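Running low. Got one?
___
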Amino acid sequence: MEFKIVSFVLGNEEFGVDIMKIDSIVELGKLTKVPESADYVEGIMNFRGMVILIVNLRKKFYMEDLPEDKKARSKVIVVNLDKKKVGFMVDDVREVLTVSEEQMEEPPEEIGGAGRSYVLGIAKIGDSMMIILDIDKVLSAEEKLEIGKIMENV
């Protein structure tokens, strides 16, 4: 079995997401901050005439955030989460890859906490490794509820 993966970068790390989960990949547009929202919520953005929430994956994964000048060049991976479109802000989107089952390994036992639930596996591609995410599980049920409440008030 083979998977089509969209690869993207956060810092020095490469990640991948199943292409079938992605609605669009767009440039980061003008953001409006949302008061009293979680730290990883970057704001809301106009996406084809609809308002979508933007989640900063660097902040969500407890990585150092980009400076404002570099953040402006970020990309947004738009996905459908629980019948709502949500944008995940990443440093850059690389390419679409085909990954075979033989290239995939289970996530290491050492991955603990919430990360264990959303790491599907590790893909070995040439000499490098890519963390494959289950984008549906990156946000916990509580976080999805919080996002739903934010979007109701927008």
Observations:
- The chain has one domain: 2-152.
